[in-house]
């Protein structure tokens, strides 16, 4: 009897664990686009090296959009390195939660394109 209870308990915990990680892995909260000056792209971390970046969305830099890039998105990482310091538009996914090996934020960049700055004097 006690053995059955322990087996069912372990089974229930396993199902909850699998359901939680499946939800975190597949579910997205929102997606969208943001634009601004790409001011930072870096590969940082002690245990897990992750790609992180920042976009300034205002003239004074008061509004900063922080994001992460998955290691598997090598083209996005290379494009961001090339476009650093320029005005860009990024397409992102926002997740409910993240894993430490994915990055520091819940925002993940999927695409980046160069844009013309609305603040430039023509």
Short synopsis of the structure:
The protein has helices at 2-26, 74-83; strands at residues 28-44, 50-56, 64-69, 87-95, 107-114. It is α+β, with helices and mostly antiparallel strands and 122 residues long. A hairpin with a 5-residue loop joins strand 1 and strand 2.
Word description of this protein:
The structure is a single chain. By secondary structure, the chain is an alpha+beta fold. Helices cover 29% and strands 39% of the residues. The protein contains two helices and five strands, in the order αβββαββ. Strands 3-2-1-4-5 form a five-stranded antiparallel β-sheet, covered by helices on one side. It is elongated.
Which properties best describe this structure?
122 residues, alpha+beta, five-stranded antiparallel β-sheet, 5 strands
Overall body shape: elongated
Q: Which consecutive residue ranges, at least 5 long each, have pLDDT under 50? A: none
Class from helix and strand fractions: alpha+beta
What strand line-up does the widest sheet have?
3-2-1-4-5
> Portion of residues in helices?
25-40%
Rg, rounded, reads 19 Å
Secondary structure tally: strands: 5
- Tally of helical segments: 2
Order of helices and strands: HEEEHEE
Mean pLDDT: 90
Strand content: 35-45%
Termini separation (Å)?
80 Å
Could you describe the largest sheet, including whether it forms a barrel?
Answer: 5 strands, antiparallel
